[in-house]
What does this fold into?
Amino acid sequence: MRFRIYRYNPETDTKPYMQDYELAEIQPDMMLLDALEEIRAQDESLAFRRSCGEGVCGSDGMNINGRNGLACITPLASLKEPVALRPLPGRPVIRDLVVDLSQFYQQYRAVKPWLIREDPLPEVEFLQSPEERKQLDGLYECILCACCSTACPSWWWNPEKFRGPAALLWVNRFVADNRDQATEERLSELDDAYKLFRCHTIMNCADVCPKNLNPAEAISRLKHRMMKDSI
Amino acid sequence: MNLPRRRFDTLVIGAGGGGLRAALQLAEAEANVAVVSKVFPIRSHTVAAQGGMNAALANVSPDSWHWHMYDTVKGSDYLGDQDAIEYMCRAAAHLVIDLEHAGVPFSRLENGKIYQRAFGGQSQNFGGEQAARTCAAADRTGHAILHSLYQQNIKSKTHFFDEFFALDLIKDAEGYILGAVVLEIETGQPWIIEAKCTLLATGGAGRLFRTNTNARINTGDGMAMALRAGIPLQDMEFVQFHPTGIAGKGMLITEGVRGEGGYLVNCEGERFMERYAPHVKDLASRDVVSRAIYTEVKEGRGCGPDGDYVLLKLEHLGANIIKERLPGIRQTVLTFLHFDPIEQPIPVYPTCHYVMGGIPTNRFGQVVAPYNEGAEEAIPGLYAVGECACVSVHGANRLGGNSLLDIVVFGRAAGNHIIEHLEAHRYHRALASESVEQALERLARWERPGDGESVEELRADLQKFMEQNCGVFRNEAVLEEAVHKVTEIEERLQYVRLKDQSKIFNTARLDALELENLVGLAQAVVRCALARQESRGAHYRVDYPERDDIRWLKHSLYFQGQGHVEYKPVRLKPLTVDTFPPKERVY
It folds into this structure.
């Protein structure tokens, strides 16, 4: 199987280039991460991140044949040759497939992604019905792999002002939680021309999410909620 | 020595559940705390824990911490320290509530309380009916807990060094631990991080074995650092094989599947666990189920073309339960096996999952070792929690649902003890330059030029023979061979060379440093396993099939360099209740 992989080592390369690799032995059920590990066995200078290998840690987000995804849960059989691998788009490249995600994390931290309570804590758990708990499904599973935000043209243009799909999904995760008491604060913080409203419903985020989440829908819920509150 | 240098009250190495729970305790007490992690915090392996966390909340069935304690002691095959086990089981309910308050989205019962599921080895009333004790957020409990803990830490302004690899502890001539030398992965720059207290929370070492449920980062770095600092490792022969990894691949299929009513069958369609554990069947403890599956396959009752696995049936649970309570494993099966577990059973086989042994600590998280005079003296300034530590609550076999519990209980306990320690030790000690030099020399060794073996080759060899020679069933001959082979690998390691000598994000260098750590641990595992002539928990010796409490009711301590194994007694006396004396373990 043939691969074309983005290479750039700032110590030795003046500019990035695509390097071809070939793997002779491909098992039918191999994932892209398995192939990358074999390529690295041939060429240890190839850098990429990985950890869990089963789609729960979010380390190995990359651009695979033009589309963001996680290498560890992308079957080789689903890919057209040569498989073109590039770093997640729109972020500074540290080396090869490794990008600098500090701005992505910055946007995440900016939305206060933690449960906020004003009232004193009870001795036992907060009560939450199965229906209330269900509101969090499709939101809390986000693994912060950055596939969505780095696929979003709005975030490419305004990464410092637009919060981006991942961070906004997390806002909605807390807004949707009946235990959280900061909904107003969370919504008013987003009330400007950029943080939320730069979303133009391009839908790349939902298209690429490896966990099948839908940040676009979460964003549209936030917008509706804000409209409703402002009337 | 012109390295960047930073100072903190406490340095936490590792950003999984244990490290983050400890850091949170410290940050909330306004101690100046830094967390060093080789991966961005929520990439830590805690994120992959599926089934849940035990606590006697009694939300589903009657329960008491004392029953939980009994199950844990029995599960440990009586090798667990009963004071630590009592402490953990008593703290459990409080800490689950604490996590819920921090935002963990636990699954819920109709009355709004936290949902609890059945898990292996859990009983009511000291060995009676099956208990439902495991608090779960669907089958993504670890993910939910790790993210919430990370979020609480950013709220409390813990200082994070993301993607810094810890090389070695800094230790002065009097034996105080003063922090660590760490490598900034992005730049290749070593740093000195000084701290009055250092906490190791670096997780397990499942990557010792070829097939395992662990993340690729689980290379036992903290345990190996401790060994190099002259600290022994405890009970390393006890490595848990999870009964239900996806056959041939290793991905974990949570015990929660069996907790929800799933069961195992052999090629004859027989529910074989009835023969091995007539009372609790598929919910026997993990060591028992793993051995049963091995035995079925060995005796020719395995499934598939090569007869090398058994089937985990869950179709009868129905689509609703599977979608609601087990969405993660459904996704895993769809992704890796390309079928829907709603329709078809899952091929499973035991796979390396958890290291019960580790850095010896007491129940306050202090690292304890035979040091100056006593057998369990605290190493000044050093703490350890979680899978890298051995406190020991899991003894010879860990019960499912106790590992998430272990990390939050002892993470918090260590945090509290460190706060006290900081009050008594207000100043940093003088930096031990010699120790820093040693760490840098170790790093520099990988800059040797020339040709040699690759890291990849050597690691593959190590993992293969560990699996062959140190698996579920062991005997003297294969273990002797294992000791011989690991020593050979240790020698070959000297001749491994890196072709890539660049500084920036050099993953080859990290692989090499991780392999070095794994080799150190392999020595500990095989030597302890060879020495222990009995069968207990996860350590099953075909040549010594019985548990031998007279000779072997004791903890092993392996020291690097000297290569020998010493022993210390098991703490059989709990804090407030009566001892559970060893008895025959039947399920």
